[in-house]
DNA sequence: GCGTATTGACTGCATCGGCAATGATTGCCA
DNA sequence: TGGCAATCATTGCCGATGCAGTCAATACGC
């Protein structure tokens, strides 16, 4: 199915533009909400990733956030300086550094999570539950499709 | 309606995370597709904005891309150096600089648009048309909701 | 066991975008 | 007319990110 055509293509109906704008809007709104709690949105995302057990090492974190490894190292540097995360050299494989949330880090993560939840519920106040569920399901599907395509292209 | 709850919140069902990953995926896939044509995805987006008449000045462009003005100035610098855009000081209001696509700029924009269309049609090959239409409509609605919320907060 | 490839963490370098400040120009209002 | 605010484009500065390269440690093939 060819969905897009030369005539029908435009910024307003391009999924790329829309995803970019939504991301920018969310980031711009969340950043000030987190300001007095401490972390940036990216830092919070990293702590959430650790908190949910999605990442226990630096390399995991880079994969889960789709981030560069160098940037992840520096990101963890700041998290460690803030006292939110600890680095521990693994004993079985001494290349890896295990990441753990400190009690303070957990507290900050939870606090920001609650603020994010409140923000989203405020934004979505006038939406139907089914609409939101549909959108989440479709965006998850799109994310999966994009990643599959990337693997096909990247590992040819 | 409170859609998100403490228990149900997680990266995989967070619209912010999903939008971020989709944006990253699209950008990462499009960048190499545009490589030999010349522009980066951001540069192409700017030219599309001019091409569609959504922006005729630097300030317009910054608004349409939700970009910083300083970054926009530098972005236009490179577009001008590439010979894709011309700057013309307006006569009626000598503060503004009018932006115009050169024939080369238009050609590059169209070429990359065709590549983007082909990319999306490849990605969405297995999707139903109705699914894509639903997702676009919902993402447009979300974008609108976010921008309304930002205006309410930002101009209190 | 040994050499090679792979993986993980880390570090310089360049780039990009956001923020703040500046200069020029215009509109507004007393 | 004169002053003041707002807008536009531009620049310096800074933080964040991607890329390439380095070093250490592990896994694999012989």
Descriptive account of the structure:
The structure is a homodimer of 156-residue chains. Chain A is mostly helical and 156 residues long. Chain A has two domains: 25-125, Orthogonal Bundle (Arc Repressor Mutant, subunit A); 126-156. The first copy, chain A, has six helices and two strands, in the order ααααββαα. In chain A, strand 1 and strand 2 form a beta hairpin. In chain A, helix 2 (41-51) packs across helix 5 and helix 3 crosses helix 4 (69-81). Chains A and B meet through helix 1, helix 2, helix 5 and helix 6 of A and helix 1, helix 2, helix 5 and helix 6 of B. The structure holds a DNA duplex (30 and 30 nucleotides).
